[in-house]
Amino acid sequence: MSPRTPKPDGRSPKLKASRPTDLERRPGRRRYNPRHLIIGEGVTERLYFSGFKRRGLQLEVINLEVDHRKVVEKAAERRRTDDYDTVWCVLDTELDPRMTQDLAKAAQDGDVRLVLSAPSFDFWLILHKNPEHRRPFGSAEAAKRELKRLVPGWEPGCTHFADFSDGLDGARKHAALIDPGPKHENHLFTEAWRLVDFLDPGNEITDDGCC
Questions:
Q1: In angstroms, what is the C-alpha Rg of the chain?
Q2: Strand order in the sheet with 86-92
Q3: Are 47 and 82 in contact (CB under 8 A)?
Q4: How far apart are CA 170 and CA 48, in angstroms?
Q5: pLDDT tens across 117-175, in order?
Q6: Which residues lie across from 38 on neighbouring strands?
Q7: DSSP string covering 133-187, please?
Q8: Sign of the C-alpha dihedral, residues 153, 157, 160, 164?
Q9: More confident residue, 208 or 173
Q10: What is the pLDDT of residues 160-201, one digit of tens each?
Q11: Which terminus of the chain, N or C, has less C-beta within 10 A?
């Protein structure tokens, strides 16, 4: 090994400080991104909640062509086996109090967050257009007919969040006012506002509609 050549002033050259290798560098901290799953019984719910896009939010939205109880059972299974921080079920009561109580218990047992609407999820969309609506519907079909009246051309399979976004704040406010709480005794209510507030507390929503 040859000796280092001194500088003209007689001093030895300084060695450059070596940089740490990749193995020596401390790993950076990764920001944790929670993962959420929403399972609905119909295509309307899937398309509506698929319209929510927040920076950093990992959200999967699906609908299952099975009965209400099986939706909750499937959600509970995904809660146990998949790495989701929260799992939500969006279902209709269809004005059946016994079924509603059964769903609430099954969701609690399965650590699933239940979002019910009476008579159907269509009432949540109606509130976007008419937040003062208080007349009970005799059936889910009656609610669907009212929604079609308010939004001409609307069909369940072609739901765009942009068609409802202007009325979101009013829907949130009035749905919260008539929310009956865990007993679900009212014939006209929707808990969808709770899920919306969870997903989008800052109201940062963009449309991701279909059709």
A1: 27
A2: 58-63, 35-40, 86-92, 113-118, 189-190
A3: no
A4: 17
A5: 999 999 999 999 999 999 999 999 999 999 999 999 999 999 998 899 999 999 999 99
A6: 61, 88
A7: --PPPSSHHHHHHHHHHHSTT--TTS--GGGTGGGHHHHHHHHHHT--GGG---S
A8: positive
A9: 173
A10: 988 999 999 999 999 999 999 888 888 999 999 999 999 887
A11: N
Structure tokens at 145: 């007919």
- Amino acid (one-letter) located at 45: E
d(CA 71, CA 24): 49
Alpha-carbon distance of 25 to 42, in angstroms, equals: 50
Virtual torsion, Cα 120, 58, 159, 177, nearest 10 deg? 40
Three-state SS for 38? strand
| Cα–Cα distance for residue pair 72/110, rounded to 1 Å | 8
